[in-house]
Specification:
The complex is a heterodimer.
Chain A lengths: L1 H26 L5 H6 L5 H11 L5 H13 L13 H36 L4 H15 L2 H15 L12 E2 L4 E2 L4 H34 L2 H8 L4 H30 L2 H6 L5 H10 L3 H29 L1 H8 L3
Antiparallel strand pairs in A: 1-2
Chain B lengths: L1 H17 L6 E7 L14 H10 L4 E3 L5 E3 L2 E6 L6 E6 L13 H11 L13 E8 L2 E6 L18 H6 L26 E7 L3 E6 L11 E8 L3 H9 L5 E2 L4 H8 L4 E16 L20 H10 L2 H8 L4 E3 L13 H4 L6 H10 L6 E8 L6 H13 L3 E8 L1 H9 L5 E7 L5 H9 L17 H12 L3 H18 L2 E14 L2 E2 L14 E2 L1
The chains are: A mainly alpha, B alpha+beta.
Chain lengths: ~325, ~525
Amino acid sequence: MVAFIARRLGQSVLVMLAVALIAFLIFRFVGDPVASMLGQDANQGDIAELRDRLGLNDPFYLQFYHFVLDALRGDFGISYRLQQPVSDLILSRLPATIELAVTSAVIALVFGIVLGIYTALRRRSVETAFIMTVSLIGVSLPTFLIGIGLIYLFAVELQVLPSFGRGQVVDLGWWRTGFLTESGLKSLILPAITLSLFQLTLIMRLVRAEMLEVLRTDYIRFARARGLARRVIHFRHALRNTLVPVITIAGLQLGSVIAFAIITETVFQWPGVGSLFVNSVQAVDVPVMAAYLVFVALVFVVINLIVDILYWVVNPRLRDSASGGR
Amino acid sequence: MSKFLARAAGVLLGATMLAGVAQAETVRWARASDALTLDPHSQNQGVTHNLAHHIYETLVDRDTAGALQPRLALDWYVKEDDPTVWVFELRQGVTFHNGNAFTAEDVVFSLDRARSASSNMRQLHATVESVTAIDDYTVEVKMSGPSPIYPNNLTNTFIMDKTWSEEHDLQEVQDFAAGESNYAVLNTNGTGPYMLVSREVDVETVLALYEGHWAETPPEVTEIIYLPIADNATRVAALLSGNVDIVQDVPVQDIERLSNTAGIRVETGPENRVIYFGYRFGDEPLRSSNITDRNPFNDPLVREAMALALDRDAIQQIVMRGYSIPTGVATPPFVDGWTPELDAYEPANVQRARELMAEAGYANGFTVTLDTPNNRYVNDEAISQAYVGMLGQIGIQVTLASRPIAEHSPVILNNESDFYLLGWGVPTFDSAYIFNDLIHSKTETHGTYNVGLYTNPELDEMIISLATETDETVRDATVAAIWAQVQEDRVLLPVHNQVLAYAMRDDITLAVHPENQPLMTTVTFD
């Protein structure tokens, strides 16, 4: 177990370094931060001087070296755009993103699994046909279109939900939550649905396919032959075996929901790290962009690690081969 | 019946207001982006200044027609026996939000801070040699030479409280490279009509009326909730759903629809910003053309043909949906030096343009790349696209290179473009500002945006003379002469002046501000 985790951690560090390196390579092509920092009144001399002070004239490897060294100390520098420490900015935006991501992941998991089981068990019913058709729309429509559609329906036409923002938040000192106020909860509904829709349909289709597969296996047939109650067969024997791949996918999807809530956050002006990133790209705010990409890599690496460990716990076969010492 | 009731209620409401009962009015004000910082000297950028104008104040202000107005300075004049000294007489009885009195010391401190090394405002104070307080309410600014238009540069230089600034170690402006954030980025202490209540960057900034402000009549708006909403559709939806009251950056394609929506009013007006095309001068062949032995743009006939190919009216009607003011000169009408004669433009004439091309020896045309931003000006990319089609009609085959402004800027500043689109705002409302950066030959201090590397030593000399010329008639004549030469050489190819649109709840009145810096103090309610 320890060796397994140690090996995984080693790999994770390599992944993080690679991401940082690639991010740094890309930044050379997103534009020049100096022009937007100085405005149109600056002259040639000022521009050259600022470039020099920011170290933008240093060779690439030196910039990268400084970045990694500072990052190891938890220092990602000062945002060019907002002039605040980058780590403060990301930490202050993180609760919004995590609350949104977790809510939509819960929606996706609960509805995905329930609907998946339902459509697997009632294969030929009208409801199933309906759900499957609607879910096809769910996967094929782009997120921003769904978001804008929901805004127009529920905020502009019906005027029952807010069209943007996070509503009132309660400051708990280390965490600003929107869960405790009515406007906070209302504000969460539309973005959470928008963000969950794709994952929901994905999980639903996965559960359905796995379930259908399992229901055809011999042990289910024998269970039926033994005269076990349908409920026991479906939920105790079939569902359990269905969930192993679902854990993997759901785990990885949680990562991508946190990391790539960018579009949803932009459409709903949700004050999370995703919209921070979008604003930073426009201003070529390199320190924020770099920190964000490293953060995203970290999220994936950590989630991957947890999923691997969970897998290892859930699936005895994997455990045996590992302890057998390959 | 209900109409009658509504009217009766209106009368009653009016009566209570007349009776002096202050109405608490909150305005939720949305625009596309947030102020970058609250440190008033750290960024020279419109959105940042706009918010700062509510909290801090400047010595002089500019009204919507462009004329200078007293604010913290009541009067300003050149010292009688020394043309290089500007004297400012300050308003008395002004206090900062923390109660500290406003005196000449604060002005000296603030001007010195604004022209310090890490300030982004220092260009505007480049000719200042020293600032001294003569008494509590008089300040003298010593310039390196006569600087007749210096007060024009002060409309965005805000005055901070010296005592408060020293308490919080704010003598230096936030320095990007230093790696530390200063106290003024998130905290304020100004003399302005509103005080900062709370600020969450990119999310929400709340301002409340400052009771101790010097103005005789307090503004009708008592609380401002400032909400940056980046996405166009979301911003418009926020107004339609009643979640905000004023939307500042209305996309052109939504103006018509919003004006036809019940309960919403749209105000439009010209912005102090001109959009133009520019091209490379000089004999050196272009980088992106199939003509490799000379520069076609250097031929006056080609430039004339390109001007005749540009159908400004079509761009106005189709690309801008009527919301632009086509012009023949690269200066907005607010600027000193603008005349209707300069503004007039020849109608498009493709036939004549083709003849000119043939005359210049380019009967078969040539190829070139046009660099355009796609997220900076209203419909910038679409304007360029339209012009590409028009140039195709006279044989110039244009490849469009469209980039976000962050990538467009380095191409422009490093003179790597053969042919480009750019916009220019004129915060000083004076032609010299345009000449210094766009027309003067490129040097360390001048011609920063002279992308085409146009050069004319005679003009350079005239441009430099504007900075120190104190005789107004001579100065005006020089400005006119420079414009005449610029037009004759077709240094730039102007398209139009941008038009701004603000949308709001229909009981609110807010006029469009030419620098796109509307003040909530000017908001009135029906």
